[in-house]
Amino acid sequence: MAPAETDGLAAAMVERETQFRLAREIRRLINEFGRDNVKRAVAQETKAKRGRKPEKDWKFLNPIIREDARRWLEGGDPFSERSNSSIATRYADEHPGQSRDSTYRRIMRKLSEERRLFTAFLAYIISDDEFPYQAHIKAISNLGEHTEYSEIAPRMLERAQQTLGDYAKHCGDVPDNLTMKEIRDRLQIALRPALPTLFPGGNKNAFAAYLSDSRPARPTSGDDKIKGIFDMAKKIGVKSTPASEPQE
């Protein structure tokens, strides 16, 4: 096969996989938040923006905040180990823009206002499938200390505890080294034979909801909480949040 044909086939495969993952994510969001809420949130996020194009500082800072999140999950204190000033200085040196001084001040302001929140958010994301489940529980509790998540974190924590309880009921004691994702996966396998009884007709959406771990429960007050989660994930450059939908 000619190189051009090979490249074309590879591109087609990537596009197909992208569309498959996108469709699956949309189904998960509809199941979690409802069709109308998702449609409104998507319409809002895809609407053309006017005015000055916003700086994409947080997407550039994503690797640094991820390091903060991992360090926090490991028991360290990233905020004392690496100051906002040192981060802003490095950023301004590498991305000075039209004015290095104004870039430094802008980054300092953003770090002062949101570094701890975004670190907590990424710790929640990362801990789902990279750290033992106890770290994920700790990350949810820490997220709830921030005003933006103070209302929904208790529900996230309750659902995570429910998943652990379901595992203990159907699979036995929860091994300390399992991640929350591994717990959901094993619980899914254990419950497959009982699906016809638990969910007549094998309702996949109902099963996905049953396995929901720490994702926020469907809001009852409109789009605000949904949009807040979308906005934060988009701002920090995270493409998805922990999911519990059964894999196809």
Strand content: under 5%
| SSE string | HHHHHHHHHHHH
The secondary structure category is mainly alpha
Biggest beta sheet summary: none
Q: Ranges with pLDDT <50 over ≥5 residues?
A: 212-227, 243-248
Helical percentage? 55-70%
**Count of individual domains:** 1
Task: Work out the number of β strands.
Answer: 0
How many distinct helices?
12
The N- to C-terminal Cα distance equals 31 Å
Report the average pLDDT across residues. Answer: 76
Q: Round the Cα radius of gyration to an integer and report it.
A: 21 Å
Give a structural overview.
- This protein has 248 residues and is mostly helical.
- The chain has one domain (54-236).
- Helix content is 69%, strand content 0%.
- The protein has twelve helices and no strands.
- The protein starts with a helix and ends in a 12-residue tail after the last helix.
Question: Short summary of the structure?
Answer:
The protein has helices at 3-33, 35-45, 57-73, 78-81, 84-94, 100-130, 133-143, 153-171, 180-191, 195-198, 204-210, 224-236.
